Amino acid sequence: MSAFANDLLALLGALVVFNVCLTASAIAIALPVACLFAVGRMSRRPLVYYPVTAYVNVLRSSPLLMIMFWAYYTGPMITGAPTSAYTAALIALAAFEVAYFTELVRAGLQSISAGQRDAALAVGLRPSQAMRFVILPQALRRMLPSLLSQSIIAFQDSTIASVIGVSDVFAMTNIISAREQRPIELYTALAAIFFVLCYGLSRLVRALEARVNARTAGAG
Q1: What are the φ and ψ backbone dihedral angles of 212, each rounded to 5 degrees?
Q2: Nearest-CA neighbor of 104 among 73, 70, 140?
Q3: Are 111 and 103 in contact (CB under 8 A)?
Q4: Residue 168: helix, strand or coil by DSSP?
């Protein structure tokens, strides 16, 4: 096997071990929190609505790079406990995605007709149960294409973690490039890997979106 092939295997290994795992873990944390925050964004209680709205607006208005630096350098100063680069990147990416997922889920919740909630209450469900078992599952199905699109963006954003020392695929490319002195081939290969993955996923999202739209139109 050639040296370049070995380098590509190293890049793919770093991509799976760090970027894919980092993104999947961040989404697994962010989505449940976003569902709660989306309900909070629709709450009529000021003590719930305003803090959640402030969080969403602040995080959506802040660059992810700044949030990662804050989590890595400032977080340990506040908590008094050291934080690894990977943990800081995970916290930052999850916190960042919560803000975006919240708005997507909120839009999905608002797309469900009020009659669904009324019907759920009429059969004896409590308001919290109506939200959990009737409204939220329908909203998530409708917003699945948008949630997946945002997940692809989160995967692309995961490369920012290299700036705080996470040995992700971008950092691995820098290391190999400095050692092998083949920056053109390596960075072109990295760009091609991301293009194939993200374009393929985007095509799947489009197909899923068309299917969801057709099902929604049929139900209407």
Answers
A1: -65, -45
A2: 140
A3: no
A4: coil
Pairwise CA distance, residues 167 & 86, whole Å = 9
Which CATH number do you get for residue 160? 1.10.3720.10
Residue 109's domain comprises: 3-219
Tell me the C-alpha distance between 149 and 144, whole Å.
9
| Residue pLDDT tens, the chain, 220 long | 577 788 888 888 889 889 999 999 999 999 999 999 999 999 889 999 999 999 999 999 999 999 999 999 998 888 887 789 999 999 999 999 999 999 999 998 888 887 887 888 888 888 878 888 888 888 888 888 899 999 999 999 999 998 898 888 888 888 888 888 888 888 898 899 899 999 998 898 888 878 877 776 665 5
CA distance 92 to 88: 6
What are 80's two structure tokens?
């008094």
Q: Which two tokens stand for residue 202?
A: 């985007």
Sign of the torsion formed by the C-alpha atoms of 206, 17, 19 and 191:
negative
Give the pTM. Answer: 0.86
Alpha-carbon distance 143 to 133, whole Å?
Answer: 16
No. of helices (H) and no. of strands (E), the chain = 11, 0
Q: How many CB atoms lie within 10 A of CB 104?
A: 21
Number of independent structural domains in the chain: 1
Which letter does DSSP use for residue 44 in this model? Answer: S
Structure-token pair, residue 91: 């916290």
